[in-house]
Amino acid sequence: MSLRLLAGVCGGLITTRNAETIEGPPRSFTMVDGIMFLTVFMMLILPSSSVEDEESKLKGKLYECVCEGMSCVNGDRCHGQHCFSALSLNDGKWVYQKGCFQVYEQGKMTCKTPPSSDQAVECCQEDLCNLNITAQLPIKGKPRYGEALAYSVPTLAIAIVAPILVLIILAVIAVYVFGKINRNHMERLNARDAEYGTIDGLIASNVGESTLADLLDHSCTSGSGSGLPFLVQRTVARQITLIECVGKGRYGEVWRGQWQGENVAVKIFSSRDEKSWFRETEIYNTVLLRHENILGFIASDMTSRNSSTQLWLITHYHEMGSLYDHLQLTTLDTVSCLRMALSIASGLSHLHVEIFGTQGKPAIAHRDLKSKNILVNKNGQCCIADLGLAVMHFQDTNQLDVGNNPKVGTKRYMAPEVLDETIQVDCFESYKRVDIWAFGLVLWEIARRTVSNGIVEDYKPPFHDVVPNDPSFEDMKKVVCIDQQRPNIPNRWFSDPTLTSIAKLMKECWYQNPSARLTALRIKKTLTKIDNSLAKVKAEC
């Protein structure tokens, strides 16, 4: 089949376009299908031809590639370490696309994926090598369009006894009903998808043979400046095996999964929290968002399993869990305390700052910073997670993007201006100052678990002594706004120079007047100065 090549423009992101509308082969139920699978439709298993991944000897070399797509904004050429030509089936239409992968491992992950009945990718590593290559689906064993499937109902009916036939008919009817319900649900999701901004394909990172931690670091420091490309839908999700559930909450569940032998975290959102999934997916795709102190994003996918729709967010896996869990089990020394505090401040500072340029990033405010939304690495540093309520700001257009999620943050960590509803909702600086208030509370949680002179307090959440376990909005408003109380600072902190400095810092995050609070960058610099002073004292000793 010949395709008319359209000159597109490419900026490193892969987009889709409709080439020719090809109606797929008709799917029909047979008795064998009902016995073996009990599904509404029969998937054709096609032998996939192996796609060999040619190892690049010079990973730093960039090749000029042809780029075809509706959103190629920099011309019909792009430069990367792999060129590709892809074919996929999207909503009953075949979509052809060409482009390049700017990160080496990113290309390896996609190029190693074998072709299937609805997707194929061909890769190469030469200048303009994808000009004359076209990804093709496997041909052997594939039914011709319009051709009836091999099984014949009358022939099989002779061989199957009447009771089994009755059971099959009942099973088909039941599966058809469930399938229709699921299709209706998918249509509602697609309608919402159009409202929030369509997320057609899988968003995947440069996952290859290296460890995910190495790849995340590489993505942060490679200097490519590009976001992650849109790839064929469900590529990664199909290859992930869910191992164990490691957490549950109102949002859904978190599972430890495995992809090619490595652990990943799979956050499965409940259907009532779809808006958080859409928002978090959108935020994680922001160019240059990747940072060692922000949870490493791998993929986002909308999948259907067991006749129900699941919304997956696949991220880096941290076996030590959240800061909330870690502090309940572990005490800290002053070095560990500063390492954690400085890493959180670094991640928050990166979120808050806007990076200008053609490959920049908007300023982002978290809006739900708390110890449960911060994860602990093996090296003792922390990374910020859960961006479902985040707000973005673009200074050049003065555009404030607050998303379309009616949820609010955690009441225990709400700033005074949020509780008394005096916050300027149209001012981005207001949201940053709310983050600073919450950071001060997290810093207090860390400091309580830091040993000084052999003394340490048990873990307690902020305001544990003045509000119940699940405080109401009015409970917090009375304590924080009317009584203007702040978390208690133990006297033992003032006998330790490091904890004394940290206590002073957290108080400057808790000013009733939001504009008087420190910025994230100022906090980061102050903690760095405290850390350097501590290192100097230890060196002299």
From TrEMBL:
Predominant location: membrane
Cofactor requirement: Mn(2+); Mg(2+)
UniProt subcellular location: Membrane
Location of the Protein kinase domain: 240-534
SUPFAM superfamilies: Protein kinase-like (PK-like), Snake toxin-like
GO biological process per UniProt: activin receptor signaling pathway; heart development; regulation of developmental process; transforming growth factor beta receptor signaling pathway
GO cellular component: BMP receptor complex
Membrane topology: Single-pass type I membrane protein
Keywords: ATP-binding, Glycoprotein, Kinase, Magnesium, Manganese, Membrane, Metal-binding, Nucleotide-binding, Receptor, Serine/threonine-protein kinase, Signal, Transferase, Transmembrane, Transmembrane helix
Pfam families per record: Activin_recp, PK_Tyr_Ser-Thr, TGF_beta_GS
Gene Ontology molecular functions: ATP binding; metal ion binding; transmembrane receptor protein serine/threonine kinase activity
Superkingdom: Eukaryota
Transmembrane segment boundaries: 29-51, 148-178
Binding site for ATP: 267
Name this polypeptide is given: Activin receptor type-1
Gene: ACVR1
